[in-house]
Fold this protein.
Amino acid sequence: MDALIAAAGRALATGDPLGALNRLALREDAPALALRGIAMAQLGDLDRARLLVRRAARAFGPREAVARARCVVAEAEIAFAARDLAWEDKALDAARATLEARGDRANAAHAGHLKVRKLLLLGRLDEAERTLEELDPTGFGPATRALHHLAAAGIALRRLNTAPARAALERAMAAAREARIPALAAEISMAAQALAAPAARLVAGGEERLMRLADVEALQASDLLVVDACRHRVRDAGGEVSLATRPVLFAIARALAEAWPGDLARDVLLARAFGARSADESHRARLRVEVGRLRAELRGLAEINATPRGFALAPRSPAGVAVLARPIEERHADVLALLSDGESWSSSALALALGVSQRNVQRALDALAAAGKVEAFGRGRARRWLTPPVVGFTTTLLLPQPLPGG
């Protein structure tokens, strides 16, 4: 490796892309192309970065397997930064295996952490955790250790394990300071803000209050019957029922929980469950059917009793009933939650992360754009969407969750 390549690599490792480009701007050999690509990625020109890395991969000869594998990892990282989530995991896994076999543990670990971050973004927490457990941070450099602990904190936050998340973030920040990479420290600091920011609203006894993630964790461990509008489930200390695929049943459960300890009139319940402005006998018949289905789902957790004017929830737990609601509730909140990371997203990536059709996402984006809540740039397949972060709130409980059995 020549001196200019080595110096440019050190500059990139410390977050100095301009210093790297000053050394390599006029060079067209494969190592220089690869480093120029990484530098352009750090400067935010992701399209140019991807082209340079691909050129570098083609320029490396067939015997330079390690260099080609590093280019695959770099391209995957650029795709992740561009929120292009359709890139093949198989190519990244093959590159990681090559790097492991050739003794490049640092870049192999980087490939593993990149896969974990993608899985976490897609809500595939079990896979992310298994992949992270395969990576032993012992012997990693400080920047890689910081990424490892940041990924562990992300998994813990999504699982509402706040104490492990806080400890992992503290380890990540210590490693980032040792690495002296300001951008990495800023990313960890932003993740740490989720622990202190309001994460949800508690609705109980006709009153509301904001809750932090630690408060939500304590609520989930309590004896209360909790109707969780963040993850569409009902739980108490003895069990849990997911209604993520039963929106009508969940709407009825939430409406009854918000009215507890009183009952709820049939007309009000019809409006909440079906959006019916005026009820006829067919609506009332359907309500009776859906309430019967909800009774069956909640068996062991609560009863639903008929009253002269409607229905009332009767929890088995003597502790009472509470509704856990999102900190902000509006249409397309899940799309806004993904966009709130400050990165630019394509509609196809949003659809992949949310598990819905791209057409549904496009409709949501058009509605949000009309309301001035998101902005688009580019055209055709290069079109990207972004929005500022939701100030003062953590979006952890707004992010997509895997469906039961997923």
Remarks:
- The domain at 201-325 is CATH 1.10.10.10 (Arc Repressor Mutant, subunit A).
- The first strand starts at residue 200 and ends at 204.
- The mean pLDDT is 85.
